[in-house]
TrEMBL record, chain A:
Belongs to the Mediator complex subunit 10 family. PANTHER family: MEDIATOR OF RNA POLYMERASE II TRANSCRIPTION SUBUNIT 10 (PTHR13345:SF13). Keywords: Activator, Nucleus, Transcription, Transcription regulation. One of its GO terms (biological process) is somatic stem cell population maintenance. One of its GO terms (cellular component) is nucleoplasm. Component of the Mediator complex, a coactivator involved in the regulated transcription of nearly all RNA polymerase II-dependent genes. Mediator functions as a bridge to convey information from gene-specific regulatory proteins to the basal RNA polymerase II transcription machinery. Mediator is recruited to promoters by direct interactions with regulatory proteins and serves as a scaffold for the assembly of a functional preinitiation complex with RNA polymerase II and the general transcription factors. GO terms for molecular function: transcription coregulator activity. InterPro entries: Mediator_Med10 (IPR019145). This is Mediator of RNA polymerase II transcription subunit 10. It is found in: Nucleus. It holds the Pfam family Med10. Component of the Mediator complex.
Automatic annotation (TrEMBL), chain B:
GO terms for biological process: positive regulation of transcription by RNA polymerase II. Residues 30-51, 168-241 are annotated as: Disordered. PANTHER family: LUNG CANCER METASTASIS-RELATED LCMR1 PROTEIN (PTHR22536), MEDIATOR OF RNA POLYMERASE II TRANSCRIPTION SUBUNIT 19 (PTHR22536:SF1). Belongs to the Mediator complex subunit 19 family. The gene is MED19. Residues 168-179, 209-221 have a biased composition (Basic residues). Component of the Mediator complex, a coactivator involved in the regulated transcription of nearly all RNA polymerase II-dependent genes. Mediator functions as a bridge to convey information from gene-specific regulatory proteins to the basal RNA polymerase II transcription machinery. Mediator is recruited to promoters by direct interactions with regulatory proteins and serves as a scaffold for the assembly of a functional preinitiation complex with RNA polymerase II and the general transcription factors. The lineage of its organism: Eukaryota, Metazoa, Chordata, Craniata, Vertebrata. This is Mediator of RNA polymerase II transcription subunit 19. It comes from Aythya fuligula (Tufted duck). Residues 231-241 have a biased composition (Low complexity). GO terms for molecular function: transcription coregulator activity.
Length: 136, 241
């Protein structure tokens, strides 16, 4: 919960900062002399906003962001696609490795089975040394 | 087999060729009792020096029988997603379709964020590779500093105005839900919106023209100068002549 609070605080500061910049842009897009005071205020809000964001940085110093996410953002793509692709790749690799493990277990049991037919006494000694393996 | 004997001591007689490292082979023909002693002695003498004699004894009659690696609970055969409680995350990201554009992730962010960062030199990669050199603290702007921000009155040139344009957000979700059950339509790009606006204008223009024509006809009927419908037919007939 504490982690989510830190993210919420940072998100709030960022939203305020972005809103301030947006309003600054509106003032500048059609500037009037009477807007000078408002412009100065927005500029100072920009500085205080950066100060607030900088303070949030200390609370999140242990957070690591993978660089690949920045590639997605720079291309204008949704960063959640990176998470999705990570999960899909992890699942695919998990299935691949599970398949290898299951195949090797089946091979081992078949090999022991066939060797026992050909070398029963030696395999009995082998099993005594190794202990009984559970069936796959 | 000569290589094996060279590795594990040349003094001992190498085991029979058919015996192989596992100790199986023609010893059976001579009898079971004859097989273990030479194999055992060979195994005992050929045991690698680092593990020590304990492992050689554990190997028994089998040559190069190593200990199995320690078993771990977590292997590739476990479902890692359930193990690390990522089912909810998996269903959230992989169960539903995640929208492609950045503006779908940050809908409230102003500006054209779907464009690549390399276009306007606003990429995060460039920020990491070449971080801006700045001071350690943020100081508020003083009055003299703010004098540098005195602007001329009037609108910005059109080149700078594009920064405020956001991609138009489609509000016709209800209409699209009826026809398309799966995926909503992605938000329009400015070029698409321009074409559609132009199409709409083209569609509206003939309608406007018709309405204007109808209004003109009505005015012409009611005006004292023009007699009415009959006169319009007469005028058309007169033109044919």
């Amino acid at each position: 919960m504490a982690m989510s609070e830190k993210f919420d605080s940072l998100e709030e500061h960022l939203e305020k900062f972005v809103e301030n910049i947006r309003q600054l842009g509106i003032i500048v897009s059609d500037f009037q002399p009477s807007s000078q005071a408002g412009l100065n205020q927005k500029l100072n809000f920009m500085v205080t906003g950066l100060q607030d964001i900088d303070k949030c940085r200390q609370q999140l110093h242990d957070i690591s962001v993978p660089l690949e996410v920045f590639e997605y953002i720079d291309q204008g793509r949704n960063p959640q696609l990176y998470t999705k692709e990570c999960l899909e790749r992890a699942l695919a690799k998990n299935e691949q490795v599970k398949g290898k493990i299951d195949t090797m277990k089946k091979f081992k049991s078949l090999l022991i089975q066939e060797l026992t037919k050909v070398f029963p006494e030696d395999m009995a000694k082998y099993k005594a040394i190794r202990g009984e393996d559970p069936p796959p | 087999m000569e290589n094996f004997s060279a590795l594990f001591g040349g003094a001992e007689q190498p085991p029979p060729a058919a015996a192989a490292p596992l100790g199986f082979g023609p010893a059976k023909a001579a009898g079971a009792g004859a097989a273990p002693p030479p194999a055992a002695s060979a195994a005992a003498s050929a045991a690698p020096p680092a593990p020590g004699e304990g492992k050689a004894a554990a190997a028994g009659p089998f040559y190069l029988l190593r200990e199995l690696p320690g078993s771990t609970e977590l292997t590739g055969s476990t479902n890692l997603i359930t193990h690390y409680n990522l089912e909810h995350a998996y269903n959230k990201f992989c169960g539903k379709k995640v929208k492609e554009k950045l503006s779908n992730f940050l809908p409230d962010l102003p500006g054209m964020i779907d464009l690549p960062g390399s276009h306007d030199n606003s990429s995060l990669r460039s920020l990491i590779e070449k971080p801006p050199i700045c001071g350690s603290s943020f100081t508020p702007l003083t009055g003299t500093m703010l004098t540098g921000f005195r602007l001329h009155a009037g609108p910005l040139p059109e080149q700078c105005r594009l920064m405020h344009i956001q991609p138009p957000k489609k509000k016709n979700k209800h209409k699209h839900k009826q026809s398309r059950t799966q995926d909503p339509v992605p938000p329009e790009t400015p070029s698409d919106s321009d074409h559609k606006k132009k199409k709409k204008k083209k569609e509206e223009d003939p309608e406007r023209k018709r309405k204007k024509k109808e209004k003109k006809k009505k005015k012409n009927r009611h005006s004292p100068e023009h007699p009415g419908v009959g006169s319009s037919q007469a005028s058309s007939s007169s033109s044919l002549r």
